[in-house]
Amino acid sequence: MESTAANMAKKYPPHAALPTPLQKMILDTLEHQGQTQLRCMVPDHRALLENFKNEQGYQFLVDVTAIDHLGTDTPERFEIVYVLRRLGDQPHQFRLHAWLSENEPSLESVYDLWDSARWGERETHDMFGIVFEGNPDLRRFLMPEDYPAFPLLKDYPLTGKQERRQFPRVVPRGDQMVEEEPTDYPTSIGRGMHTPEYNEEVRRDSKPRQ
Amino acid sequence: MGLESLLGGEGFLTTTVNTIVNWGRKNALWPMPFGTACCAIEMMATFSGRYDISRFGAEVVRFSPRQADLLIVSGRISLKMMPVLQKIYRQMPEPKWVISMGACASCGGVFDTYTLIQGVDQFIPVDVYVPGCPPRPESLLDAVFEIQKLVGEETFDSGKHGS
Amino acid sequence: MTPSPASEGRDTQVPSAKTLKKELEKGWRDHRAGTTSPAAMNLVDETGDGRLVMNFGPQHPATHGTLRSIFTLEGETISEADVEIGFLHTGFEKLGENMTYQQWVTVSDRMNYLSAINNNVGYSVAVEDLLGIDVPPRCASLRVIMSELSRIADHILCVGLQGMDLGAFSVMLWAFEKRELVYDIIEAVCGARLTTSWTRVGGIIRDVPEFFPDLVYSFLDEFPPLVEEIHMMLLNNKIFVDRVKEIGVVTEEQALSWGITGPIARASGLDIDVRRDSPYLGYDQYDFKVPVQSEGDSFSRYMQRMEEIEQSLEIIRQAMATLPGGPVVHDDFKTSLPAKDAVHNDMESLIHHFKLVMLGHGIQPKPGSSIYSATEAPCGELGYFIHSDGSDTAYRLRVRPPSLYNYAIFPRLVEGGMLSDAVAVLSSFHVIAGELDR
């Protein structure tokens, strides 16, 4: 069954209402299953988004994200995706994709147009390393602040690079729990903490000094 | 305290005192739920009306580690959360026991990714592991019974009584 | 690296009361004008004027899940607030690039773990949109019924926890008791209580048992009295009402600008609902109202959720009355597994089964196609953006979590208020950390 989104897309194409200088910035238009997707290059995205919000009334920024096309033959490595929606009498939704080069992965933020871009861009920065200039709060978000990598890049492995094993181990020593730095990286599957040998060791350490 | 050195070894008095102390401890465990994800919801269901954990003594759920003795780690522990877990564990006074509830806390579960700890027992000592994703409330109750058995076998000089 | 306030030493020099009052009023005025300075984001307290920086940490009974807030308190008033998330980050999106389309549905129900079926349905609808296939009507109706049951479970839990945070503990126990009824139905249909993984691309795993109508109708008889009981407990309770009325007001413009969806947006007057605006799974054939409140405070969010529960019950009644017969799986063997006895006896079915199950084959959408598909989860609009490169795993699987965009406004709301109001606002927001962090 054809959804109402597909019907709306046919009636109100967003790029038709753009003024001519901005229309030249749109590289191409794709349609899939009734959803429109416009593509542009990065410095132009700001002017296009301002027009979409102020003149055409796309008041709702649904999502900001990015795609990393490492190794495939696309114009640039990163593709920033903005999902825009207009409410009201002429509801419509479409996506704007902006190509971003990996040599200079920074672009202008749109946080002053939509407040939802503040955290959307912050998360995209955290996952891809893309810098959104002007965003007032571009700290690390989902990863710890001193995490050495950006996880969703295609050259970062799924299981990471051993960051998840670098914690001290809390072991009982006498009557206290102390932290012990790992000397190797033991796998502790099947290794319980209350084996008789271990208890013996703890008992030996916990006798008071004479 | 020097009580065990005065009483010296496994005499009749120490075993009776052991039994009484262990009986008191195991039937009044004060759980501290360290609930992060889906297992936390099943843990909350275990604390609620249908699978009531307070039938077995573990009614007083304390969210402050200083007042608890059973830490239930339920849910996936990520890189950011591990120092928090260690801090909470070290803040708990002795004697304390740890239940690692669910597959994610025991071994990383379904998620072998860059940010999840593949089992909390690499970094804190765990007493009982509960399999399941999430385990049914009856499994968590079974884990509490195992902890009660472990508590029943404690002696004065097992190092857990925090002299 | 941003220094964190919890580890900074402070030089305590208490200023005069007039200076403090002026600064507080200036901050409050800036906040009201929407111009909260970036100093609110800078967590180093350089003035040393006797404020207390308090950590409302990731392990706390009143934070629903692993949410950390850092409050700068003056007395009991919060002058600055900052939040930190990511304590449950699991890398679901990266897993989506390594798992096939059928496999990832098991990961999807660990996101919003209170209503796992909505996540499953949302994901399957997204992949089916990408492929351009339709599910049979029986499957659509069943998905609608289970989604609405799951939505009821989520809302009643939220209301229960809201009551518990504000002191009404019995409400939480009653809510959990009735949630067990929903769990019984979900367990009979899906096999698991919480992490169901019920849908597949093109359908659901199997048809419902024969006693399914009895289960649902007995649920529809037993559940509605609870709504009345909770209203009776909470609405006549002056303490509850005073603690939530006019606390944490989100205006309609703020909801629109901050990307807020779901019950929070509708409680502020923004009339959006994905089920009505761009219907999926046949929602346009059910006659249901979308309740909208106007004040936008925590009390309206409570009333909004209770009214949505009643509308969900109405949808379930209509869907059960019009439940059609027929298959529950899309009959194209490029996406759906054939029946097992056909696999054992028929060569063509065997080849289809092999191609679907072995890695490298399976569901392969058109290369370069991408889709953004949204469904209405209990927290708001759950969107999936899938970009495909023609292989059997997604090239980019992005989840648009409703809780992330709902939670972004939280620091603004609590600044200037009292500490106990922060708890009330957070519990009415119903942020689920699994979905927030993914």
Mind explaining what this structure looks like?
- The complex is a heterotrimer of chains A (210), B (163) and C (438).
- Helix content of chain A is 21%, strand content 26%.
- Chain A has 210 residues and is an alpha/beta fold.
- In chain A, a hairpin with a 2-residue loop joins strand 1 and strand 2 (35-41).
- Mean pLDDT of chain A is 75; it is low at 1-6, 185-195 and 205-210.
- With 163 residues, chain B is of the alpha/beta class.
- A 4-stranded parallel β-sheet of chain B has the order 1-2-3-4.
- The longest helix of chain B is centred in the last third of the chain and has 16 residues, at 137-152.
- Chain C has 438 residues and is mainly alpha-helical.
- Helices cover 47% and strands 10% of the residues of chain C.
- Chain C has a 3-stranded antiparallel β-sheet. In chain C, strands 6-7-8 form a 3-stranded antiparallel β-sheet.
- Mean pLDDT of chain C is 84; it is low at 1-15 and 30-45.
- Chains A and C meet through strand 3 and helix 4 of A and helix 2, helix 10, strand 6, strand 7 and strand 8 of C.
